[in-house]
Amino acid sequence: MKRLLSKAKNRAKRLLTDLNGPIDMVNDAVNFDLECIFIAVPKTGTTSVRTQIRKQGNALIPNPHLNIVQVRDLLYPFILRSSLGNNRTYPSEGVPSDKDIRNQAEKTFNEFFKFSAVRNPWARAASLYFRREGVQANEEMTFERFCEQHLYASDTCFHPTLHKNQLDWLCDENDRMIMDFVYKLEDFEDAIEQIANRTNGRVKLIKRKANKNPNSRSSDYKDIYTDRARKLISKAFEKDIDFFQYTF
Fold first, then answer.
1. Contact 79, 105 (CB under 8 A)
2. Which residues are registered as beta bridge partners of 25?
C-alpha cells in the first residue's frame, strides 16, 4: 500500500510540474497544423500513425488513447489556457471573451478532420493477449481463459478504460458516430490514399510497422482459437462485429 501511495504522489508531482510549465498541445490526438484529430484505439496499429501525426511538446493530457468526446471537451480548456496571460494593453483590447473561446473550440472540432482505425475483434483479442507492454496476460493464463475474462476493449492496457467496444472511442454521449473517417487496420494501404484525398493532401501517412511483438499470434489468430473462445469474443464484442461487418 505504501508503495502504491508513493507512486501516486510521484505521478501527481510530475503532473503539477507539467501544468506549471508550457503546454504546447492538447494531446497526441490533435494536430493544429494538419487540422486533424486522430483517435487511437489501442491495438489497431495506432503507434505508427501517432508517431506521424503528433507534435513534440508537453500535452495538456498525455494519455495517448483518449476517446473522441474527451478530446472534444479538452479543446476548450486548452484554448482557454493558451489565451490567458497575453494582454499587454489598457484598456484591454483584442482579448477573447469566454464565448469567443468556446466558439473557437467548437469550430475547431467541427472543422478538423477526425479519423480513427478499428480492427477485427478476434485478431485484436489475440494482440491484447500477447502484448509486451501493459499486463502480460499470456504469462498468467491460457488464451481461452483470457477470452473468458476479456470484458473491455482496453483490457491489458497501461491506461485501461471501461469502453466495452472499439465504437465507444468514436461515438458521442448519444452513441452517435461523430468521426469523419474510420478505416479498418486490414485496409490501411487503401486508407492512406483516402485520408490524403479527404484532407486535400494535408495528412500524408506512410505504412510503417511499429510496436509489433514478433511473438504475437495476431496474424494467424484463427489457429489459437477454440470454438468456445471464438464464441466468447463474438458475444463480448457483438456491437463492433455488427457495425463494422467483421467475420472470424
1. yes
2. 59
Task: Please give the pLDDT value at position 1.
Answer: 53
Q: For the chain, what is the largest distance between any 2 Cα atoms, rounded to a whole number of angstroms?
A: 73
Q: CA quadruple 219, 222, 228, 234: dihedral positive or negative?
A: positive
Question: For residues 229 and 48, which has the higher predicted lDDT (pLDDT)?
Answer: 229
Shortest CA distance to 196 belongs to which of 207, 185, 186, 210? 207
What is the C-alpha separation between 183 and 185, in angstroms, rounded? 6
Query: 94: which 3 cell numbers?
Result: 483584442
Q: Tens of pLDDT along 83-138?
A: 887 777 788 777 889 999 999 999 999 999 999 999 999 999 999 998 877 677 88
Which one is predicted more confidently, 103 or 21?
A: 103
β-strands 113-118, 181-184: how paired?
parallel
Q: How many whole angstroms separate alpha carbon 123 and alpha carbon 183?
A: 16
Q: Is 68 left (phi over 0), alpha (psi -120 to 50) or beta?
A: alpha
Give whichever of 4-13, 102-111, 149-158 has the largest mean pLDDT: 102-111
- Into which CATH architecture does domain 18-244 fall? 3-Layer(aba) Sandwich (3.40)
The single-letter code of the amino acid at 51 is T
Distances (CA, A) of 82 to 23, 32, 168: 8, 13, 29
How far apart, in whole angstroms, are the C-alpha atoms of residue 243 and residue 110? 24
